[in-house]
Amino acid sequence: GTGMFSSKKIHCKNCCQKNHRDGTTTYHHNSLMAVMVAPDISPVIPIDMEPMVKQDGEKKNDCELNAAQRLLPRIRRQHPHLKIIVVEDGLYSKGPHIKQLQGLDMSYIIGVKRKDHKFLFDWVNYAEKEQYEYEDKTGTIHLYNYVNEVPLNDKHSEIKVNFLEYWEIKGGRKKHFTWITNIKISRSNCKELAKGGRARWRIENETFNTLKNQGYNFEHNYGHGHENLCTVMSMIMLFAFLIDQIQLLGCKVYQTARKSARTWEGLWEEMRGLFLYFMIESWDKFLITIATRRQLGDTSSGSLQSQLNSS
Q1: Helix (H) or strand (E) holding 169
Q2: 36, 276, 288, 289: least surrounded by Cβ within 10 Å?
């Protein structure tokens, strides 16, 4: 979940509201995004977005869990045969949500914290745990503790989950993570499960950070309107981001142009400059010009042009 608009003046009937002690009100729009991530691949693929807006007949603000109830069934309808592992933070480590995931035939890796799951952690402490440890080439020690088939909590003891604990230790510095999953944990897959759990941060870094801080200006008010314009604008921006990420995955010319510009903002500035002062004959020449720093009129065949023609 992430914010996409906030103002104390501009608002619409679908805005959520936060009332402050000084009597002022902040109006805001948030959204819940489903983003396809992989542990070892930087580009991400947004696949859907559910806005958090005032629901008909409701006085309370919308929230992430309610948005997830609407979003997850839609994703399953859109992708009925896709094998999905849902990766989420501790907010979602609740019985009703896990039951929904099970009903939709979705696997999960969800973060859990001791302060929120005392029953679970007490159970794990007394359970007989398996352990796996190794040291990689950089001298980093990786330690995994895991136990299968433990109750989620005292209220939903019928929900059995598998518990994974992971430490990363290097030079006296420790990182510690804990997850629950419905995938049976073993010595052969605990490493991959931990990598999958940690890949959730790609949604924060490669998605939200890029959209908000690297030139897309996701939180800028491009138009609010009286009902749905703010959400429509955000979705259009997400479509643009999706196209950029697909090109980053599959187009070597685009990859080279992005690398040549160094940053996303640098790439956008070069694109704007060329659009302002030149007639662009084709998207191919446009990207090759940025990638190779050649003049737009230069038709000489280079390695990138040859590669483009052969693809």
Answers
A1: strand 160-170
A2: 276
Cβ-based burial of 230 (10 A; exposed 0-12, middle 13-18, buried ≥19) = buried
Q: For 103-137, what is each residue's pLDDT tens digit?
A: 999 999 999 999 999 999 999 999 999 999 999 99
User: Six-digit token pair at 205?
Assistant: 């870094």
Burial bucket for residue 137 (CB in 10 Å: 0-12, 13-18, 19+): exposed
- Which own/partner contact pairs does 129-138 have at CB distance under 8 Å and 24+ positions apart? 130/185, 130/186, 130/187, 132/187, 132/190, 132/191, 138/170
**In the 8-state DSSP scheme, what is residue 156?**
T
pLDDT in tens, 57-97: 667 888 999 999 999 999 999 999 999 999 999 999 999 99
In the chain, what is the straight-line distance between the N-terminal and C-terminal CA atoms, in Å? Answer: 38
One DSSP character per residue, 184-252 reads PP-TTTHHHHHHHHHTTHHIIIIIIIHHHHSSS-TTS-S---SSSHHHHHHHHHHHHHHHHHHHHHH-H
Nearest alpha-carbon partner for 200 in 177, 174, 169, 173: 177
Considering only CA atoms, which of 101, 36, 38, 108 is closest in space to residue 72? 101
The count of residues in the chain is: 311
Beta strand 173-181 with 107-111 is antiparallel
User: Which tokens belong to 50?
Assistant: 């559910």
Asked whether 88 and 108 are in contact (CB, 8 A), the reply is yes
This prediction's pTM: 0.88
Both structure tokens of 128: 């007989």
Instruction: List C-alpha distances in Å: 42 to 148, 168, 245, 256, 282.
Output: 31, 21, 9, 15, 28
CA–CA distances in Å: residue 266 to residues 48, 202, 215, 254, 258 = 28, 22, 9, 13, 8
Q: If you search the block for the tokens 């396809």, which residue do you land on? A: 36
Token pair belonging to 28: 């805001």
